[in-house]
Amino acid sequence: MSGLIPRVGVPAAAENLAETLREAGAEPVPMALPAVWLDGGVALSREWVADAAEISCYRQRLDGLLLAAEPPEEQAGLVLAALRANLPTVAAPSGDLYLTAALAALGLVPLADDPAPVAVEAARTGRPRPGGLIDEFSLVNALRAGLSLGGGPELLVHLAAIAREAGSTGFSQTLGVIVPETPQIAEPHSEWFTRHGNPGLLALLGDSLNDQATVAGRLREVLPATVPEPPRFDGTRLAFVEARASGARALCRVDAGLAEISGECRVHHSEKFVVRLVEGGFVEPQTLLVVGGCGPRGAPGISRLERLGQVLEEYGLADIVPIITDGLPPRSGSGTWISLFSPEAAAGGVIARLRDGDTLRISLTEGRIRTGVEADEFRGRKPHDFPDRAGAGYAARYTRSALPALEGAGFG
Fold first, then answer.
1. Sign for the pseudo-dihedral over CA of 122, 127, 130, 133
2. Tens digit of pLDDT for each residue in 246-265?
3. DSSP state at residue 277
4. Which among 216, 15, 188 has a CA at the least distance from the CA of 107?
5. Residue 126 and which of 211, 227, 229, 395 are 20 to 30 A apart at CA?
6. Where is the Dihydroxy-acid/6-phosphogluconate dehydratase C-terminal domain (predicted)?
């Protein structure tokens, strides 16, 4: 520790946490995060935050960190920076309930205590550090917790990035095992979750969680002994599907009882254009709307199609028009989304070869994607060309080396 009073870095925007740090006996040090935001998707923003926060950590000679950000991409970026600096770190609950649940199970969010005093004590003692908390076992805990609350594809992208930064190998294979066997068991905005929160959620998961160290003690030591079961409800689930001939893969977010998705494609490569089609009444029920160019290299940084999700809800199409994209679905809401199509369109993947009128059948039971197009014809098609959306500078450097979405979509 650099002095008798620990210096704890906290994002400058979190003024309330700075005050609680001061009351707990620390010197809150504002962390300089980006003042200018790049035009791109969530993974690009996450990396931008991570790099800025890492520089701030080293420049300000900190003893510890208290992480706090509303958007999940910013909070995930702060976690990446904490791993790089390996300073004693505590995370406050963020604006994203799914990521907060995951970070609690990862050991960074205190389950029973205010985060500021925990952060001050960690800074004083020099432990625990994120490099000692985050490993293959705690990552499985994080994945189970986030999925159990209904976390979607974006959660998986950020956890994959955290796993890579922590040096954990094989996380993409872990996804293939854990995702199918982990249903949603609680609704994030329900009365049950409001009352029991993440301690109750993790207690429900019981023996499926590894008893890992956390910032506030062993995981099972801080969980309630018993909690009532949440009310039954019709939730969503995630399912991987694959086109075996090409190796293309996608992640579906669907209603729990859905077994198959099929229809005729209408192919576009701009969310804004598809939004205008919906608003103009040009989209028919059961059409498969394909939106390419939204992946790590195409967006750049993986677009979250929030506006498209909103207009589908507004026009009553969310439950009857499936979306196929190499980007991300909205963080919440209804509808059928076949997302994170990989290889992405900008890399010449299958999604870049789809054309208007192609038929697709996606079996969630079998985990298969099938097309009505003959294999030779499909292979012979020229992939759609995409404009350079990155321009120059940081975004261009990211685009040249961006990893696939389920490898974290960070710099390669």
1. negative
2. 899 999 999 988 999 999 99
3. H
4. 216
5. 211
6. 258-409
- For β-strands 217-218 and 213-214, DSSP reports them as antiparallel
pLDDT confidence of residue 185: 95
Max alpha carbon distance in the chain (Å)?
72
CA 135, 140, 141, 146 torsion-angle sign: positive
Name, in order, each residue with C-beta under 8 angstroms of 2's C-beta and a sequence gap of 6 or more.
61, 63
pLDDT in tens, 172-231: 999 999 999 999 999 999 999 999 999 999 999 999 999 999 999 999 999 999 999 999
d(CA 400, CA 258): 38
- E strand or H helix at 197: helix 191-205
Strand order in the sheet with 89-91: 27-31, 7-11, 64-67, 89-91
Spatial neighbors of 316 by CB under 8 A, at least 6 apart, are none
Q: Give dist(CA 87, CA 8) in Å, integer.
A: 10
SS3 content of the chain, % helix, strand, coil (to 5): 40, 15, 40
Domains for the chain: give ranges and CATH numbers.
Answer: 7-222 (no CATH), 236-407 (3.50.30.80)
Six-digit token pair at 167? 């040096």
Query: CA–CA separation, 123 vs 2, rounded Å?
Result: 10
Helix axes 42-60, 153-165, angle to 10 degrees: 40
pLDDT at 129: 98
Which residues are bridge partners to 261 per DSSP? Answer: 362
Query: Residue 376 corresponds to which amino acid?
Result: D
**Residue 410 · residue 403 · CB < 8 Å:** yes
**Are the beta carbons of 53 and 81 closer than 8 angstroms?**
yes
